[in-house]
Amino acid sequence: MQNQSIIEYGAPLAETSAETPAPTGTEVLIQINHCGVCHSDVHIHDGHFDLGGGKQLDVRAGRELPFTLGHEIEGSVCAMGPDATGVTIGKRAVVYPWIGCGDCPTCAEGDEHLCAKPRQLGINVNGGYSTHVMVPHPRYLLNYDGIDPRIAGSFMCSGLTAYSALKRLEAQAKRGPLLLVGLGGVGMMGLAFARALFEHAPYVADIDPAKRRAAMGAGAAAAFDPSDREARKAFLAQTGGVFGAVDFAGAESSLNFAQSVLRKSGKVVVAGLIGGSFTIPIPMFAMRVIGIEGSFVGSLPEAREMLEIVRAGKVSSIPVETRPLSAANQALDDLRAGTIMGRVVLEI
User: Fold this and answer.
1) How far apart are CA 240 and CA 252, in angstroms?
2) Which has the closest alpha carbon to 52: 251, 289, 283, 277?
3) Every domain range in the chain assigned CATH 3.40.50.720
4) pTM higher than 0.90 for the full model?
5) 21 touches 126 (CB < 8 A)
6) Residues 2-157+298-347, CATH architecture
7) What whole-number distance in Å separates Cα of residue 99 and Cα of residue 134?
8) Sheet with 222-224, edge to edge strand ranges
9) What is the pLDDT of residue 316?
10) What is the pLDDT of residues 253-295, one digit of tens each?
């Protein structure tokens, strides 16, 4: 099989080849058709996350190089082990990549994505920037009939991240419009799901005017530039503040803006991973009765729920651009530069 792999952290991906593995037990071998390129791929490729103040979180440990990125996978079953049931050769599916150890209490509760010993595809084990990927069990293969195959795999990360984060704000969404900060691939998915799930169209914020225009075209209630010094004042004057916000960027500036426009008793959910540090005076939590919590992708049951909503036609499409597997390096560079509108997907 052919791959685009990390051979050195921070260096360009290289084309590598390996013998196509034969599945055993409950394993299923997938011939990959599409794999989305995600901003978390950029961090793993770099080998670190930015913690702000010149500090970095080193994430190079635990992988044998060369390593193949990619966790937004759509493909076809091409082989299976003798104990794999419920699948047939040629069946197309999206792959749930957030796989846990299967033995711990967290996995038993259905939260494999939070497992302390993960086996996540493209994160801990080789993933989808390849012609093939091995999946440990058929339960991780999900039906996407009725969804564009180019974007179907991306629902397993950007879609699931957006859906799970928004579910944490269901009570706040009943009280008024939410605010979505950051309009990259995940943020645009968030806008699409917010329009499908909640009565009120959300407000949005992004520093890129093209992304703000795209969001308005996709049904946002109003768009703001958080880099504008008057943005907070303008937002509060127009809206009075919000009870809930999702930070899909995960940067110091985005979280600062999101929390600054919360009403009393409001909550921000942080789903982005750009990086940096954030501080707030501790008394403000009690005085404003606000909450800030994190959200990391979503569970396998949530993935099934989310796909049913998409398959029902309730979620509008986002911009998608396909590129060949050989263009993986350029796709990562474009994500670093922040020039991607919607999602870039490798077509294999």
Assistant:
1) 23
2) 277
3) 159-294
4) yes
5) no
6) Alpha-Beta Complex (3.90)
7) 12
8) 222-224, 203-205, 179-181, 242-247, 262-270, 291-294
9) 87
10) 999 999 999 999 999 999 999 999 999 999 999 999 999 999 9
Task: Give the pairing of strands 14-17 and 2-6.
Answer: antiparallel
Give the bridge partners for 141, in sequence order.
95
Place of tokens 């390593």: 67
Joined together, the tokens standing for residue 113 give 């994505």
The residues of the chain that CATH labels 3.90.180.10 are 2-157+298-347
Q: What CATH architecture does domain 159-294 belong to?
A: 3-Layer(aba) Sandwich (3.40)
What pLDDT score does 118 carry?
A: 97
Which parts of the chain fold into alpha helices (H)?
39-46, 105-108, 149-152, 158-167, 170-173, 185-197, 209-217, 231-239, 252-260, 283-288, 300-311, 328-337
Mean pLDDT across 339-343: 87
CA distances for 36 relative to 53, 140, 149, angstroms: 31, 17, 11
pLDDT (0 to 100) of residue 342: 84
DSSP 156: G
